[in-house]
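Honest question from a wet-lab person: if I give you the sequences of every part of a complex, can you actually get the arrangement of the whole thing, not just the pieces? Trying it with mine:
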Amino acid sequence: MTDVLSRLRAALGDRVDASETARQAARADKSGHAAAGTPLAVVHAASVADVQQTLRIASETGTPVVPRGAGTGLAGGANTGAGEISLSLRAMDRILEVRADDLLAVVEPGILNGDLNDALAAHGLWWAPDPASRAISTVGGNIATGAGGLLCAKYGVVRDAVLGLDVVLADGRLLHLGHRSVKGVTGLDLTSLFIGSEGVLGVVVGATLKLRRLVPGQVHTLTATFPDVRTAAAASAAVTAAGIQPSIMELMDATCLAAVHRLLDLPAADPHAAQLTIQTDGAASAAEAAAIADVLRAHGGTVQVSADRDEGERLLQIRRSMHPAMETLGTTLIEDVSVPRSRLAEMFDEIARVEREHGVVIPTVAHAGDGNLHPNFIFDGPEVPAAIWDAADDLFHAALRLGGTLTGEHGIGVLKRRWLTDELGDDQWRLQRQIKDVFDPQGILNPGKVFAP
Amino acid sequence: MTDVLSRLRAALGDRVDASETARQAARADKSGHAAAGTPLAVVHAASVADVQQTLRIASETGTPVVPRGAGTGLAGGANTGAGEISLSLRAMDRILEVRADDLLAVVEPGILNGDLNDALAAHGLWWAPDPASRAISTVGGNIATGAGGLLCAKYGVVRDAVLGLDVVLADGRLLHLGHRSVKGVTGLDLTSLFIGSEGVLGVVVGATLKLRRLVPGQVHTLTATFPDVRTAAAASAAVTAAGIQPSIMELMDATCLAAVHRLLDLPAADPHAAQLTIQTDGAASAAEAAAIADVLRAHGGTVQVSADRDEGERLLQIRRSMHPAMETLGTTLIEDVSVPRSRLAEMFDEIARVEREHGVVIPTVAHAGDGNLHPNFIFDGPEVPAAIWDAADDLFHAALRLGGTLTGEHGIGVLKRRWLTDELGDDQWRLQRQIKDVFDPQGILNPGKVFAP
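Yes, you can. This is the full assembly:
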C-alpha cells in the first residue's frame, strides 16, 4: 500500500491527494451510501497521461481503481473503499473542439453538463442529454451511467448523442473508439458498450459528442394539476398516445411538490394535488401546447400555459430542485425504475400498494414523457434499513412485471447489483461478466460494482 | 457432413433446402462477390425454435453457420461457402406487436423494411432507418449491418431506433437483450453491441423497435444542379453549416445520374452536372426549403422546389435506383466510406485523385446530409481485379486521413476485413476479437467475416 502511494506520488506529484478530507469525500456519492473503509488516495488527473500513469501503477500492483466525476451518482458507482484508488476526472474539464459544421464537440470528461451547454449556446448548439443534476454533474458521469434526463423522449438518450470515446484500459493503454462522422459501422460498437458501463470496462478520458442546433422558435410551458397522482400519470400517457411529442413532461406527486415548495420558499401547493410540467418547443410549439392542454383537460387536469421562456425555466426549476428537497426530509434512497409509457399509471398503483403493504411513504417524481420514475424512500441514519430494501425489492419486481427495467438512468452501482440477474437472467449476466473480464482481466476497475462479487 | 445434414433434416424437415439452386444462391449477396464452394444447405427458419435447433446441431457438430436475411448485403457478410450452413431468417417476417402508445413494435427479423413501414403507416407510425434498398432488404439485415440510409442526419442511425433484441447464441440459448422502455441502463448495452455485428456474435430472431409518429405537414423536395460534383458537395456542406436540417440530402455525380436516367427511361441529364436532391419535412418544411434554396443558389446551384409529395417520391426514386443502374454498367464494387460533413468536398477531391492516379472511373453517390459516400468501382467479370482493390485501398486511406471511417452502413463483411486494423488499431481489433470469442468460443458464427482469419 505504501508502495502504491509512493509510486503514485513519484509519478503524479501533488495530483495525488491522500488527505483525510479527500479520502473521506471519495467514499460516497449523492446516494448517501458510503463504501466501507477509506481509499488509499484520490488522484486528480489533469491529463490523459495522468490517467494512463495511474492505471499502469494500479495494474502493476493489482490495486483497484474507481473512476469518479463530480460524485453526483445515485447508485454508489463511484464510491471508493479501503485499498482502492479514487481516480477523479473532474479536473479534466476542457472543451477541445467545437464544430458547428460537423455538429460535434470533443470534450474532456470532467466538464459539467451545464457548463458545456452554456459554452455551446454561444455557437447556437447544444448537447441534448440533460440530467436534472446538470448544474453539478459531469459529461463523463453522464456517459458512464447513461444518465438521460428530462428530454429523452423527444431528443434521445445519451447513447444517441455520443459519436466516439477515448478510453484508457486497465493496463494504461489508450484506445480511440467510434468516429467523427454521423455514420460508422466499422467492427463492433464499443462506444455504445462503454456508455452506461459505470467504470467497469475502462476510464473515459475524452468524448466526441453529437450536437444539435438550438431549437428555434417559442417554448411553451404547461402546468397541470390533478386530484391524484394516478390521474396525472394516465393523463401523461394519454398525451403520448395522442401522438403529440413534448420536449419535457415531468410528473411530481403531492409530497414532492410540498417539499420543493418549502425548500424554494414558494407558496404552499395543494396538499393532495399531483402536477405535470410540460414543455413544447420548435416550429409547432404553440399548436402542440394547445393540443396537449386539450388532452390534459379531458383527463381531469387544471391547466395553465405560458409562452414565456423565463417563466418556463422557473417552473422547471421546481422539478430540478427535487433531489435537494428530498434531502431535507431525511436520508433518501432515490430509485429509478422505468416502464413502458402505457404502464405508467399501473406503476403508480404498484407504488401505492407497496406503500400500503410495507407501511412506508414513497414520494415519487417521474419523467412521464419516457416512463422513468424516481420513487424516493426516506429514512433516518446513513444506512438503508432492511425494511426499506424489502419495499424497494417489491417495487423493482413490480416494474419488471410491467415490462420495465430496474434503472432508467442512474445505473446499478453497488445499490442495485443484487437485482441484476432478476432483469438480465443468469445467462446474460455471465456473458456481461465475461466481457468485463476481456477488458479488465485482473479485475481492478471498479470492482464489486454492477456485477456482484 | 452427411451427419449434419441428416440431423438438420430430422429436426427441421422440409425447412432444410439442399437443392443446388438454393445452395448456389446462398454463396453471394448483392456485392457480387461469392464464397468459395457451396454451403451444405439453406435452413429456412420459421420460428425461434428452428434457429435454436439449427445452432444446437451446428455447435454440437462444429459446423459454421452464416445468418442471412434477403441477401442484399454489399460486403459479402452473408456469403456462405463450403461446409457451412446458410441460416435464412427471411421467412420469419411477422409483426408481433405494434404499440402506438409506447411508440414501439416487436417484429421478426425477416420482414422487409418497406413492408414494415407500409404496415406501420396504418397506425400513423414509422421506423426511421431507411436504406435505399428498403423495398428488398430486411429489418434483421438492417440491424445486423447498422444499415442507416437516407434519413440518418435528421432521424438517427439504426442503433438510435432499437430498444431491444432477442438473440440466439452459438449454442442455441435464447437471450432477451434491452428493454421496452425509452430508457434503460441495466448492465452493459448488449443491444447496441449486436447492432452492426454482422452475425458474428449471435443470430437476431426478434427486435423491439423504437418508432416515430409520421411527421405531419408538407414535404418539400429540392433538386439542384451544379457544374461539377465538388461544387455540389461544398453546397451540401454549406447547408449543414448554415444550421438547417433537411430530412434527406442526396448527391449524385454525372455518371450516376446518366446511368439512372437510362435505366428509368428518363430524358438524358446534363452530361457534366452533379445533382443534389433534398427534402424538408415537419412544421417548418416550407421555410427550411426556402432557406436551403438560398444557400444552394449562393453556392452556384440551379434550384427547383416542389411541394408535391408524389413528385418528391418520384425524384427520390432516381436516387434509390442507383444500385440497379450501376449493375447495368458491369460488375460493381460499391464502397461506403463516411467522413465528417465538413470534409465532403475534400473527399471528392480524393476520389478525383484516385481516378487520375489509378486510371479508373468511380461514379459516386453520397448521403451528403451525413457525409456517407458510395463510390462505385465498375469492372468486368465476377472477381474484383487487383488494380481495383489498389484504387479502393487508396480511397479508404484517404477517408481515414480525413477523419472518416471505412464503412458508414454496409459493414466489413469479407470485402473490407483486411483494412479493419487500419481503422481500429491492433489493440482494439484484439479486444473486439476477444468479445467475439466470449459469444462464440467455438468460432462457428459467420467465421472469417469482419475479423480476418
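Two things worth pointing out. The first strand of chain B starts at residue 16 and ends at 17. Chain B has a mean pLDDT of 95.
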